[in-house]
Design brief:
phosphoprotein, Phosphatase 2c, domain 1, CheY-like_superfamily, six-stranded mixed sheet, alpha+beta, about 525 residues, about 25% strand, hydrolase, elongated, Serine phosphatase RsbU, regulator of sigma subunit, Bact_Sigma-Reg
Length: about 525
Amino acid sequence: MNADRTVLVVDDTPAHRYVMASWLRRAGFGVVEAGTGRDALAHATNPVDAVVLDVNLPDLSGREVCRILKSDPATAHLPVLHVSATDVDAAARTAGLEGGADAYLPEPLDRDEFLATISALCRRVDAQRGAGRTARRLEALTGALVPLHEARSPEAVADHAARGACAVLGRAVISMVVADAGVVLRSVCAAEGAALVRGRGPTAVLPPMGASTAVFGPDEVPLPWQPLFDEAGVGPSAWFTHWLVDASGALVGGLGIEVGDEPLSDEEQEAAARFTEAATVALSNLRTFTEEHRIALALQRALLPSGLQVSGGVEVVARYDASDARLDVGGDFYDAFDLPDGRVAVVIGDVQGHSLRAATVMAEVRVTLRAYLREGHDAASALDLLNAALREDHPEFATVCVCVLDPRTGALELTDAGHLPALLVRADGTVDRAKAGSRLLGVPSPRSRPAHHDVLAPGDLLVLVTDGLVERRGASLVDALDRLAEVAGRSAGASPALLCERVVAAFDDPGREDDVAVVAVTRHASPDGTLSLTSS
């Protein structure tokens, strides 16, 4: 038990030093000897587990050496046993202990008491080190579980499981996830911070009958794993494997941990078990999230217009992208329809919140606004009527932008209620912002809403967006709107569909947390019948 422990023996009397070192060596300890305080400080930076320190040294006193050791973070953990043939009274022993020593023995020493004291000091250090390792492992485990539960794809679960388990256990790890259609995703992390090696295949490595864990020897490594280990630089080794099974008993994945020459300790096996349990929960949550997200998207799209017709050579394209980070339904909407007087109305808006209620209010707002505009109300009056209805029936707020376009002349009338400015992208690449700002819907509007009048020439593009496209946590909205204008300007002359694609792609980044709606409108030179509103 003592073979892995080394004791630094510091005494300026060679005979005393010899006796203590001999006792320690016979008891199985490794020994490093020093005759002065300065030599002791130099040796203490090497791996030692305890220090036997004579109080009276020729250069530095033992108490001073102890003080220096305890004040240095690199050596503060070392237990110090003071020994002395002269300072043996209670006051001297008390001063030594108060100065930082962990124990104090007067000379002449009793061999058994001396060895028992050293062993006790080493056990205490072992316990402290074990507690520190446990605390660090728990901290690493907690940190690794967060991205695992935030994963939104089977690939991400496999990656985070491999990285996290490697960081927690300090060993090479292979993670396995059974994805849709039985495809098995594998990720290997050879060391903390190393690049992942990924693979996929149709064949899962199955557990032995009735077992949840197993150990594969170096010559028993499953064939699908070996190419990944070779690429990751993982040499021949044994692998402790823990399979992941969901509540129904179906195999959903597994976690392989490199064992090598050191088998997993009980503490490591407990950490591995907790990690595999968390990975199983993460996969179950991911499947639930994916299904509910699909249903939410289907509901969202059912509430948005599809296949509407607008006349007079006006082409309208809408692009809607739901946030992958959210499960609930958002309140973004758009619309386009003919008015009785031959003009075309194009609408975009956003109802506050992400919930089924927000989607319901969104559908009501869209339909009500369409009805008011088709009754012949101008955009400002329609928004006022809509605001009154919204305030009477719902507590939600909403932003809306209404554009009414004359296909014959290109005359454009725009009114918005708290919405982002529209962009007019001219055929020559010039970008104008169209804003006729008034209060958002859901609050009193004491004055009439202004209107912005402009002309959409043939080849020009009208661009409308919701705030999910440009708003990012902690980022400048002004800078984002400038960037939007720049991206739109580079798409001058492009089709509305291509412009929508470029705009969404330009802002498709990990910081996006909200749904996005983009509408692009162009007017062709010669009205040639009816064109469909295209939504994607």
